[in-house]
Structure formats: structure tokens, C-alpha cells
Write a structure and sequence with these properties.
Structural class: mainly alpha
Largest sheet: none
Helix content: over 70%
Number of strands: 0
Shape: flat
Length: 85
């Protein structure tokens, strides 16, 4: 068995585990409507694609941003905007 097969087996097991959790949750707490499920999946997909985009960007440059630095700059920008209004 190669690594690819092992990954497929693990992914299949995780999927089956999550499906079982979903069935149990639905039976115990009630089922979600199709619209609710689609909305949740849509938002999760958006986050996934944004993270994927960030990974691709990170590979293309050596520049890195740190949370504290980004938040400091954002606060300064917001402060300037509110003081000029």
C-alpha cells in the first residue's frame, strides 16, 4: 500500500465518522433544512478557498505578515478615518 492509498483510506474513514456524527446529531437534535446546510457549506468553502489562496500567495513571496503588526496598522488606519470624519 502506498501513501496515496493510505491517505484515501484515512479520508474515507474521517468522512464516514463525520457522516455518523451528522446522523446522530440529526436524530437527537433535529435535521437542518437544505437551505441551512447549503449556507453552512458555502461559508466553509469560502473560508477554504481564501486559505488556499493565502497558501499560494505565501509560496510566491518571502514577505510575511504577523497578526500584531496587521492589527496595529488596521487600528491606526481606522483611527485616522474616524478622526478625519
Amino acid at each position: 500500500m502506498d501513501i496515496c492509498d493510505d491517505e484515501k483510506i484515512r479520508a474515507t474513514k474521517r468522512l464516514m465518522d463525520e457522516l455518523a456524527k451528522g446522523r446522530t446529531s440529526g436524530e437527537e437534535k433535529g435535521w437542518h433544512s437544505l437551505e441551512e446546510a447549503e449556507a453552512k457549506l458555502s461559508s466553509e468553502n469560502e473560508v477554504y478557498f481564501k486559505l488556499r489562496e493565502a497558501e499560494v500567495e505565501a509560496r510566491s513571496t518571502s514577505q510575511r505578515y504577523f497578526h500584531k503588526e496587521v492589527m496595529k496598522n488596521l487600528r491606526e488606519l481606522l483611527s485616522k478615518r474616524t478622526s478625519s470624519d
